[in-house]
Amino acid sequence: MMEKANVLVVDDDRIILDSLCEFLNLEGYITTAAESFAEAAAALQKRFFSLVIADVNIPDGSGIDLLSVVRKNYPQTVVIIITGYGTIESAVEAIKMGAYEYLTKPIVDDDLLLCVERALRQQSILSENRRLRGQLEQKHTLDNIISQDYKMARIFDLVQAVADTTTTILMTGASGTGKSMLAKAIHYHSSRKEKPFVEVSCGALPETLLESELFGHVRGAFTGAVREKDGKFLAADGGTVFLDEISVASPVMQVKLLRVLQDRQFEAVGSNETINVDTRIILASNSNLAEEVKAGRFREDLYYRINVVTIHLPPLAERIGDIPLLVEHFLRRFCRIHGKEKRNITAEAMDCLQRYSWPGNVRELENIIERTVLLCKDTQIDTDDLPSELVMQSRVVSGPGFKQMGLKEALAEPEKAVIRAALDANNWNRQNTARALQINRTTLYKKMKRYGLEDEAAKLGL
Predict the structure, then answer these.
(1) pLDDT for 86-104, tens place per residue?
(2) Which among 121, 159, 246, 390 could bridge 283 via Cys, Cβ 3.0 to 4.6 Å?
(3) Prior bond to 414 cis, omega within 30?
């Protein structure tokens, strides 16, 4: 039994009302009595009730009307309907509208007590689900995507603009850049957030299984199909489906995906019945789909259908300024998870991390920081605590190695990197960048043109 739960009892018969309240008080519940719809509505506005027990016939309304109000405005409250004039029709109506149970007078104490206990267990589950959903929404907000990079800021603005629409979104970028995390942020920033978010990695499934996974199958559709199965698109009905590694889809699968994108219709494997769904579709690819189209491996009509809003996630190597922020975040997180004393990182170790090329992007950085937290015996993380291959590569990048080339050619790449870093630090404001580099603006423009940075700025709209 759930002790000290608040219960609102509504009945127009004062004797029955007092009797129910007294019985529930003796059982450890806190009760509030109401003799009319207006009194019940006023009580609901003043405090939270875990349970409402309402007579179907009350002055200035009905128990069914009150049930409707509770379901709309107080979804965590469970309702039990009681009446002395019970009919099958009114019972079915109450249950259809969301009442937990329907009891008829005269009420047996044991039946009422059992019903209340079950209803409050149901209410506890509803509250827990709501709490967990709130935690999930908080976990996948844009605030939890850590970045101060101007490119990511533009992506965040775009996400906020398109999140609450039905527009298909294509995300590109190398593996480990955070496409899945951003897809979840889009879902939880939309009006679909109460519905499922379903993720499918197309590259992880063979072609023979991918169709069944996405569209479902009927019993006997193929060898081993011993029972009917719903697909991911149906599971995500009303919500969002995220298709990762879409570039690996076969030509046959691409045709079926095109139809789903156009009409939101499909058939399960082995069935002729057309299924309609209301599903928001987000796709991701770590390869260049335009090049795949030119090579004939990806349908041109499908590419133009999904290329409505494109979000390109830059690799971590282009977000060097974000590395200290990410390192601090991962250090706090893994020290808490593994019960370790707070770790700090030396300037030399941070320099190594910022010079490394990060082929695995943010995912690789996350894994390295977790490994370091677990293996470091001191509270100060130094270069000796980092993987040797990372330290070696970072030293090669910054070391005095030489290959046969002119001095001007040798200095070109470092100069380009310095200019790019200065532009990033100043949000690509040319005047501020020139001042920071202590050169005039004309010289900066010439160097940007020489190194292709002006073309890059034009593509980004900067």
Answers:
(1) 566 776 778 888 888 888 8
(2) 246
(3) no
